[in-house]
Design a protein that fits this description.
This protein folds into two domains: 30 residues; 280 residues, no CATH class. With 354 residues, the protein is an all-alpha fold. Helix content is 72%, strand content 0%. It is found in: Cell membrane. Its main location: membrane.
């Protein structure tokens, strides 16, 4: 294949996405699409063989260490995370596919301000309208970016939607009866963190930090065919990373003793950091995390707020989904930024309202 001439790098991530990255027509896959070469087939066989060997070694090493109760707890947590998240992931994938197939790019150009700084708070407020958890927000944000929405605005929606939507706020009110300040604190801290992250990404985000997934479609395909192709692609892709995140979360749930967590409940700053870490490890869906937070009676309300603010924006399954959708280069920069913002707002709003 002849080498392509070098082209100027787009000025911003939004420009590159709006222009199709490089301006070339990539509606059809290359001629050798899906044809693995000989070395790649050989590498796959060796990887599979190594995997089988590791399974055997792991079984021999863990057979006397992994009790039946621990294994059942691990399996229960993994199943709960997967089953709890999958309906929302399917919903998000379906919505993302609908955005791709049925909503023209011109619609988003009319609804969302072109200026990224102005689009960020609009996208953050829009998160209060759409019910769903963090699993649904990732494919939806990816679909918005594919339709020309500024990445900073789409990422703001990704953060705010699972944290401040009506279902989450109602669940928080039910979990904390007689404490409307917890609902208000969660709304303000989550929205504030999402908007600040969006503004920072609009200011400092770079094109080569993000690799949104793109789907090739037949130019003659109908809208329903595009919808089906997009949904099938995104579901298979995101579903695999959801399983990886669920496996990691279940393993850490079993490994970390609960006594260690309770021991630091009386330390004001440390307890906030511990519950933030616990939210990351547990990877509980945002519609259910308020009930878990309410059960942690040993901790302060500020620590519980950190659990509610950090969890929907940074957890293991969400990190895995973001890596699968946007790439690890994006995750290495985005996740620490979000974690810092959520912790700062948890401390600040917790000190003011709680």
């Amino acid at each position: 294949m002849p080498e392509r001439s070098a082209e100027p790098v787009p000025a911003s991530l939004g420009d590159s996405l709006a222009d199709g990255f490089d301006g070339r027509d990539e509606s059809l896959p290359p001629a050798d699409w899906g044809r693995p070469s000989g070395p790649r087939r050989t590498a796959t066989v060796w990887l599979f063989a190594v995997f089988i060997v590791l399974l055997g070694v792991g079984e021999a090493w863990l057979s006397d260490r992994l009790t039946n109760e621990a294994f059942l707890a691990w399996a229960t947590i993994f199943t709960a995370i997967s089953l709890q998240a999958m309906p929302f992931l399917v919903f998000g994938v379906a919505l993302s596919a609908a955005l791709t197939a049925f909503v023209p790019a011109s619609f988003w150009q009319r609804v969302i301000p072109k200026n990224a700084a102005a689009a960020v708070p609009v996208a953050g407020a829009a998160g209060a309208v759409l019910p769903g958890c963090e699993c649904a927000s990732v494919p939806v944000a990816n679909g918005l970016i594919r339709r020309g929405v500024a990445p900073a605005a789409a990422l703001t929606f990704l953060l705010s939607a699972p944290a401040i939507n009506p279902i989450v706020l109602v669940a928080t009110a039910v979990a904390f009866p007689g404490q409307p300040e917890m609902v208000a604190a969660r709304f303000v801290a989550s929205l504030g963190a999402a908007v600040v992250v969006g503004w920072l990404w609009a200011r400092f985000g770079r094109t080569d930090w993000m690799r949104p997934q793109r789907v090739h479609h037949d130019p003659g395909a109908t809208k329903w065919q595009v919808f089906a192709d997009s949904m099938r692609h995104d579901l298979m892709h995101a579903g695999g990373f959801l399983v990886v995140g669920g496996l990691a979360a279940a393993t850490l749930n079993v490994i970390v003793p609960r006594d260690w967590v309770i021991a630091v409940a009386d330390m004001p700053v440390v307890s906030v950091l511990v519950l933030a870490l616990l939210a990351i490890l547990l990877s509980i869906c945002s519609e259910a995390d308020a009930f878990v937070a309410a059960s942690l009676s040993e901790f302060s309300n500020t620590a519980k707020l950190a659990f509610l603010v950090v969890g929907p924006m940074v957890d293991l399954k969400l990190i895995a989904l973001q890596a699968g959708t946007f790439g690890w280069t994006f995750v290495r920069r985005f996740v620490p930024l979000v974690l810092i913002a959520t912790l700062v707002f948890s401390f600040a709003i917790g000190g003011l309202l709680l």
